[in-house]
Amino acid sequence: MDDVPREVVEQALASLGVTEVEALQGGAQKSVTLVDRGEERLVLKVIAIGASNPDSIKRAEREVELLSAISSPYVVAVASELIEIGDPPTGAAWLEEFLDGEDLTPSLRSGPWT
């Protein structure tokens, strides 16, 4: 499975009661989308669950559990529980706070910081 199917993202949007603003990132088995919940901007994370990777739901549950256990201005906050999409599950989704700013990837690839 290369990308998260659009219908899985749409089900996640409806189930979590958010409106899509713009796609932030996509790729192999994960979709990251900027969403609105009323006046609040959040990030919707959706993962595809396929037969080729049955442990992906467990990893997603663990990620949400770990992030939910931390309260720090240096760690993104989880804004919803993890939900499963479909029966049997074809995806899982949750909301996180939106941190506005630059992507650090280029800085991290440029070598050690001074």
How many runs of DSSP E, i.e. beta strands?
Answer: 5
- Give the radius of gyration: 15 Å
How many helices? 3
Supply the CATH superfamily name.
Answer: Phosphorylase Kinase, domain 1
Question: How many independent structural domains?
Answer: 1
Q: What's the shape?
A: globular
Order of helices and strands: HEEEHEEH
Distance between the termini: 40 Å
Quote the average pLDDT: 87
CATH domain class name: Alpha Beta
Helix content: 25-40%
Level-2 CATH architecture:
2-Layer Sandwich
Structural class of the helix and strand makeup?
alpha+beta
Comma- or semicolon-separated keywords:
114 residues; Phosphorylase Kinase, domain 1; 3 helices
Blueprint (SSEs and pairs):
Elements: H1 6-16, E1 19-25, E2 30-37, E3 40-48, H2 56-68, E4 83-85, E5 91-97, H3 105-109
Antiparallel strand pairs: 1-2, 2-3, 3-5, 4-5
Descriptive notes:
- With 114 residues, this protein is an alpha+beta fold.
- The protein has a single domain (6-109), classed as Phosphorylase Kinase, domain 1 (2-Layer Sandwich), CATH 3.30.200.20.
- Helices cover 25% and strands 30% of the residues.
- The protein has 3 helices and 5 strands.
- It has helices at residues 6-16, 56-68, 105-109, and strands at residues 19-25, 30-37, 40-48, 83-85, 91-97.
- The protein has a 5-stranded antiparallel beta sheet with strand order 1-2-3-5-4, with helices on both faces.
- The longest helix has 13 residues, at 56-68.
- The chain is globular and about 50 Å long.
- The model has no long low-confidence stretch (mean pLDDT 87).
